[in-house]
Input
Amino acid sequence: MTVHDSSSIVRKRITGHVGFSNLPNQVLRKSVKDGFQLTAMVVGESGLGKSTLINTIFNSTICQPREVPHPAEERPKTVAIENIQADIEENGVKLRLTIVDTPGFGDFVNNSECWDPILQTIEDRYDAYLKQENSVRRMKKVDTRIHACIYFIQPTGHSLKTIDIEFMRRLHDKVNLIPVIAKADTMTEDEVADFKERIVSDLAFNGIRIFQAPIYDDDDDESVGESETIARAIPFAVIGADPTKTIRSPSSGRRIRGRAYPWGVVDVDDPSHCDFILLRRMLVHSHMEALRERTQDVLYETWRTQRMLGMGVIQDHSVFEEVDPAEKAREDRLMHEAKLAKMEAAMKDVFREKVEAQEAKLKQSEVELYARHKEMKEAMTKQWNQLMERKQQLESGAQDPRKKR
Ligand SMILES: Nc1nc2c(ncn2[C@@H]2O[C@H](COP(=O)(O)OP(=O)(O)OP(=O)(O)O)[C@@H](O)[C@H]2O)c(=O)[nH]1
Ligand SMILES: [Mg+2]
Output
């Protein structure tokens, strides 16, 4: 297959309610300034309806044939990796959704390295992001990283094919993997349910991790309910329909997006017919933030560390250690207590010095007072003695009249 990451981007404006503007306030506030942005990629065997599903999501025919089809081929095939982008605006909240269409594999006798171009695209996009992170002049980063990889499984009803297992094994630690059963209209309801079960156990048996919707403690009941419904429905059974050829629903008479059969019609937007709505809600509503977060914090971070180590850069892991809020609060409290103790000791020192100075001053006054007292006492004793002496003289003069004048 000819693969190159096409630089051309097909831009499309889609209208209609999607639901991303109803995201929890906290999430909304975080992203509302710059608008939301999500990039998903479709991967899988040729002819499973990847391009059709993209058209259904974007509601118009934008995945055009890139090459004139071979006369023997009845349908145009995707021949290059291509970005299809749409700006959606709801209640003043903007979302830029990009879906990357890829050529299907399985057309060749040897499909042994069919994952190479896909892995290459994922890593090239990580590389482009890393370059921006490492650049001296840090501008606002353009994030083209793939946040979700929708992997199309052929509706065989048996088990996963070796090629699917091999492919997904190479993808699961690079990108959020969302497996879907393609063309689910070709299977009965029971067959879909059985096939889902078999796929889930095949994935577990082969150690393939698919994207699991996280459930947070502070999630409201509605969000928990939605996450559980989505988790139960994976791998989603999807049906794609050409959005330009709407059909009339025999029951409601409305024009619907679906597929018509001699025995009836399937409506892709009817949740009882297929999981298309769940897949779209997961991408642009309930799990958009979780997909972005896991890409940034786990998948890209792991890839980046390996890449840096490969380049000979040793990383100081302590810088990236997660901070436990309770531990951080304990450390802060201990530091605060130590600071208080230091201040108290300094204040005690100042107080002691002041008391000592006052005591010394008092002692000095006491000494001076004592000296003065002594002096006064001596002066008075002297005066007393003089007076006594004088008295005696007077008394002795009074007894001897000769001495009288
Ligand atoms: N029955 C059924 N047919 C489908 C569905 N989706 C697409 N098709 C048909 O399957 C054929 C292939 O669809 P594409 O969307 O071109 O498939 P693709 O996966 O993009 O193929 P490549 O580009 O070769 O990888 C077309 O004839 C579609 O009309 C579906 O859900 N059910
Ligand atoms: Mg295609």
Summary: The two ends are 159 Å apart (CA to CA). Residues 1-7 have pLDDT under 50 and may be disordered. The chain has one domain: 5-322.
